[in-house]
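Protein: UDP-4-amino-4-deoxy-L-arabinose--oxoglutarate aminotransferase
Species: Methanosarcina lacustris Z-7289
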Amino acid sequence: MIPIAKPLLGKEEIDAVTEVLSSGMIAQGPKVEEFELAFSEYTGCEYAAAVNSGTAALHIALLAHGIGKEDEVITSPFTFIATANSILYTGAKPVFADIEPDTFNIDPEKIQEKITSKTKAIMPVHLYGHSADMKAIMEIAEDHKLVVIEDACQAHGAKCLGKRVGSFGTGAFSFYPTKNMTTSEGGMITTNDKEIAEKSKMIRAHGSKVRYLHEMLGFNLRMTDIAAAIGLVQLKKLDGFTATRQKNASMLSAGLKGISGVVPAITKPGCIHVFHQYTIRAQKRDELAAFLKENEIGTGIHYPIPIHKQPYYMELGYKDSLPVSEKAAEEVLSLPVHPALSRDDVQKIIKVTREFYANA
Ligand SMILES: *Cc1c(COP(=O)(O)O)cnc(C)c1O
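Structure follows.
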């Protein structure tokens, strides 16, 4: 079976973990600090705060910016549930703006239409590893004095107009095993704002800077040194992983070109796509997925239900009509693109997909 995702962990990661375990210091400690410094440099940000998941990074970023009850945050309905849930956790209301049909990212024009007097922030998602339109989004944010929190959980190293994502506003990254790099579970907040960095570090540790002095309500959302040690090794490998993802993606795009029924993944000018997923639009999507599975090729649907149509959100009273997202949910299919694929694997994915449409 060719899996849809596979973390690449080797001897270096094992040695790094062993070293931490042998040291006896296994909670948040010097490795976390070292990882924060390395990740902030990589992203081109002055500060970074490590936490125990991408969800925690989003949640803390919102709280650090003072977002809560009565506030509205505009985000994409076509993303993993954690994006919108992080807004709900703060007491604020997620407001969904529909997406662009080509990148599947939030559409800046639709953001404009959703701004009210309650809007405090925009949370774009760099879906599949392709940057949202950060030029337009930063302009809107500036015009309306809005905070920008980037959900960069799928986009480690991706660029927009020469800048890394996570460095435009406040960034939130995930290091879940299926992401472009992993720490097992883990996350990171990136920022150029010293106060946001300090607040984030307090919120992750029960609102305290000095032990047993609690200045605000916080949580326990810390990263361990065990996770950070894995992250330090993975970060060194990230550019290599990304180059392989990009090479696999261009092989897929070349191989899928011209199939009627398939729209291959695109990269917009000015963007560096890091291909967390290689996602096509496919006619007869579910039949294609079944055929690929019969041929031992794993696929994924990211995502089958837009967030405003999720049962829990319907219960909250969401009645939006967001046709671009709803159509995408019926047509998207992610094909394996991860760096553990061999050349033969990629050729097989192309061959089997071609075979399906030749007989469809
Ligand atoms: C993975 C992911 C998250 C959540 O990250 P976790 O580390 O799983 O909590 C949030 N947003 C998006 C877009 C993601 O892909």
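Remarks: The first strand starts at residue 47 and ends at 51.
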